[in-house]
Write a structure and sequence with these properties.
The chain is mainly α. It folds into two domains: 153 residues, Ferritin (Up-down Bundle), CATH 1.20.1260.10; 151 residues, no CATH class. It has a two-stranded parallel ribbon with strand order 1-2. The N terminus is likely disordered.
Length: 325
C-alpha cells in the first residue's frame, strides 16, 4: 500500500443521505470539543470558557435541525459516517490533547473549526439537489460564518484581541497547514525511512559511491512519491489546507532533502570519514524535526524528542546491523 493513501471515500462520491449524516456527526463532535475546551478553561479563563459553552449550544441546535431534516427525508436509520471516513476532510485534534495546548492555540483551533465547518456546508450545498436541503445547508454555512464573527468579537471583548492579531492567527494557521505540516511529514519520512537502506548499503559494500547512488535514488524516489501522495490525497477545498500543488511541493522537496542530507557525505571517498559525517548529519536532522514539532505543532519537547530521536536511532541501528550481517 502506498504511504498516504487509504480507503476513505471521496466527498464528491457521498450521497445526500451520507452528507446529512456526516454533518450530524460533525456537529456532535464539535459540540463535545467546545464543552471540553470550556471545562478546561473554566478556572483560569472563565470568560473564554463561557464563549465555548455558547458555541457548544449553537452546535447542538445545528445538530437537532439536521436530524429533523434527515428524518423527514430518509427516516430513522442514520448511516455511521464520520470525518475520518472521508478523504481530504478536515480533522480535529483529540480532546485529550487540550492539556498540551495554550489558551491562544485553543482559540486558534476554534477559529479553524468554524471556518472548516463553513467550507463543508458551502461544498455540501453545491452538490445537493433537494431544494429544501440545499437551503438548510446554505443557512448553516451562513450561521457558521456568523458564528466565527461572533466568536471573534466575544474573544476580542474578553481577552483584548484586535483584528490584526486575529488576522495574524489566521495567516499562521494557513502557513502551518499548507507548508509546515506537509514539509514536516516529508522531512520525517525522508530523514528516517532512508536511514536503513543508506547505512545498510554503506556497511554491506563499504563503497562510498555505491552508497551515494543508493541514497540519491532512495531520496529522489521518496520525494516524488510523497509529493504526489500529498497533492492527490486532498484538493484542500474542504480541509482548508491550501493548494495541493504547494503542499505536494513542500512534502516532496523536504522528503528529498531529508534523505539527501545523509547521502551527500558519501561523495567523500573515505568510508569512515563519510559515515561519521553522515551520522552527524542524521543527529542534526532528527533534532531539527523535534524543534519544528515543538515550535509549530506545539508537541511537548520531551515527547517529540523521544519519538523522533529514538525512532531514528532504531532505524539507523537496523540499517547498520543488516548491512554488517
Amino acid at each position: 500500500m502506498i504511504p498516504g493513501f487509504s480507503f476513505r471515500r471521496r466527498f464528491s462520491d457521498l450521497s445526500e443521505k451520507e452528507i446529512l449524516a456526516l454533518a450530524i456527526s460533525s456537529e456532535e463532535d464539535d459540540a463535545s470539543i467546545y464543552r471540553s475546551y470550556a471545562e478546561y478553561l473554566k478556572k483560569d479563563y472563565p470568560d473564554t470558557s463561557k464563549v465555548f459553552q455558547d458555541m457548544a449550544r449553537v452546535e447542538d441546535s445545528h445538530r437537532k435541525i439536521l436530524i429533523d431534516k434527515f428524518q423527514s427525508r430518509f427516516g430513522e436509520n442514520l448511516p455511521l459516517i464520520r470525518r475520518e471516513h472521508v478523504a481530504g476532510f478536515y480533522a480535529r485534534k483529540p480532546v485529550w490533547l487540550i492539556k498540551n495546548l495554550s489558551v491562544d492555540r485553543i482559540r486558534l483551533e476554534s477559529e479553524m473549526m468554524e471556518r472548516d465547518a463553513y467550507n463543508f456546508y458551502v461544498k455540501a450545498a453545491q452538490i445537493t439537489s433537494d431544494a429544501s436541503t440545499r437551503r438548510l445547508l446554505g443557512d448553516l454555512a451562513a450561521a457558521e460564518a456568523g458564528h466565527t464573527t461572533a466568536a471573534d468579537r466575544l474573544i476580542e471583548t474578553h481577552v483584548a484581541s484586535d483584528a490584526k492579531e486575529t488576522e495574524a492567527r489566521t495567516s499562521k494557521r494557513q502557513f502551518i497547514l499548507t507548508w509546515v505540516q506537509p514539509g514536516l511529514a516529508g522531512l520525517m519520512d525522508g530523514s528516517v525511512s532512508t536511514l536503513a537502506p543508506i547505512f545498510a548499503t554503506a556497511f554491506a559494500t563499504q563503497n562510498t559511491w555505491t552508497t551515494f547512488i543508493v541514497g540519491l535514488a532512495a531520496s529522489i524516489g521518496a520525494g516524488i512519491s510523497m509529493g504526489l501522495t500529498e497533492a492527490v490525497s486532498d484538493d484542500g477545498a474542504i480541509s482548508g489546507r491550501g493548494s495541493p500543488l504547494k503542499r505536494g511541493l513542500a512534502s516532496g522537496v523536504m522528503t528529498a532533502v531529508g534523505g539527501l542530507g545523509h547521502a551527500l557525505p558519501y561523495l567523500i571517498p573515505h568510508f569512515w570519514t563519510a559515515t561519521i559525517l553522515a551520522m552527524v548529519v542524521v543527529f542534526f536532522e532528527l533534532w531539527v524535526i523535534v524543534w519544528i514539532q515543538n515550535k509549530y505543532m506545539e508537541a511537548p519537547f520531551l515527547r517529540a524528542a523521544l519519538q523522533v530521536v529514538l525512532g531514528g536511532a532504531l532505524v539507523l541501528a537496523a540499517g547498520i546491523l543488516i548491512g554488517s550481517g
